[in-house]
Amino acid sequence: MMEMNGVREVNSEVPGLAEISRSYMNDFIAEIREILEKIEIELVDLEVDPDNPDHLNTVYNSFNTIRGLAGLLHDPVSIRIAAASGELLETLQKYGASASKSAINLLLFSVRFIRKICEDGDEVKDTLFMGEVEQHISNIRKLREDIILEIRQPAGRDTRIGEILVAEGAIERSDVEEILKKQSSVFNKMKFGEIVLKEKKVDVSDIIKAIRMQKIRNAGTADQYVKIPLERLDQIIGIINNIGNIFDSIKGEAVLRFGSNDALTIDASKAFNMVQDVRSILRELRMVTLQQTFQKLTRLACTIIEENHLEVMFSTMGENIEVDKEIADKIVSPLGELIKLLLEKAYTEQDAARRIGSIEVVAYEESGTVHIGITGDQVVDIEEFKSDTRFMEVASRLSILECRLVMDDMDGEGTRITIAIQR
Which residue, 45, 280, 290, 400, is most buried by CB atoms nearer than 10 A? Predict the structure, then answer.
């Protein structure tokens, strides 16, 4: 149970106050539990009708009520969870956005965290539990920022950072005008953002968010794009490779016949280098980020977690890492199978009273190789895992894609499956 600060000290001085205080606390906790149950019902309705503003409003008001009750109980952890959840809901309301599966899943986890604190107030003393809470709040804030960046329409070409900061309520327009004057005089060599930070007008996170929004808004429609089927792109790359080989032969022959300083040799070398540049550009056209891949994985993982009533948090990082489009498309299924297998082996048989588990998928690039790591906080039997026919099938499919698959137990700290993709 949660316990109000200072209750014991006051109780020792006022006879009978302990029973009264405990009674009030129990009433507050019982009310929070009832509200949590109502939120779950509303989230089910929201899953069916994600654009319904009434469901959003109800859930938003419920989290606000919990925030107030948690304040009376002097429970700062539940306050932060409820506040972050309320901010996410407020963003969905403000921009008329649909409640995505990711948003609904995060709100469900908010319910579960608060419920655990209601059942056992000592959870907040557990370092692992608090780490999970911090990650959860971070995930909520990230989703909220992504919604803002994705939904807001460009406010015109060349949108300036100052305008964005004013629109976000991070700074007053008068402050922007004052900084612009300084920028044109004494601080003429400093950028707007540098002056704002130097004078501590806004937080660095506000500047970073404004810069990200500026990039999106100023993308405009000036650049024109054409669609090239992957098959045709591969044909072009093949032709360019052949042309490169021809110029390479011509360059070698010219060196033998006329020397390295001959005009023909120099022109052949230039042509060969130009062909190499074209080949590099064409290869870049095949590159895509892992964003869609990770979105599909998140939907799959959350579905499995919900269907099996698991207490597992799922998150991803490194969505902006680029890989070949064909790899990005074909690797979704193997990754999904590995996540499904890990959930089955590590979490479905766990004790129901166990604290919330976690699985994280992280992508990063190192020395020309993209690594995608699937990490779970539960240790499994590595050899048994590898002997599963489903794992062996996945390993075979990844081998065809020229991806290397390794697995380890993180020195007894959990389970990690890593896929290495050569760029």
Answer: 290
Q: Are 180 and 67 members of one domain?
A: no
Structure tokens at 405: 């698959």
Strands 322-324 and 369-376: unpaired
* Integer Cα distance of 100 and 51 in angstroms: 9
CA atoms within 13 A on the CB side of 225: 6
Q: Is the pLDDT of residue 17 over 60?
A: no
State how far the alpha carbon of 260 is from the alpha carbons of 46, 222, 223, 269, 276, in Å: 72, 44, 41, 10, 20
pTM of the predicted structure, to 2 decimals = 0.43
DSSP-assigned states of every residue in 324-350: EHHHHHHSHHHHHHHHHHHHHHHTTTS
pLDDT in tens, 356-370: 688 889 888 887 789
| 121-125: Cβ within 8 A, 24+ apart | 121/1, 121/2, 121/3, 121/75, 123/355, 124/75, 124/77
How does 114-123 read in b/e, with b if 16+ C-beta sit within 10 Å?
bebbbeebeb
Mark whether 309 and 408 lie in a shared domain: yes
Residue in 334, 336, 327 with CA at minimum distance from that of residue 304: 336
For 270, the domain range is 230-285
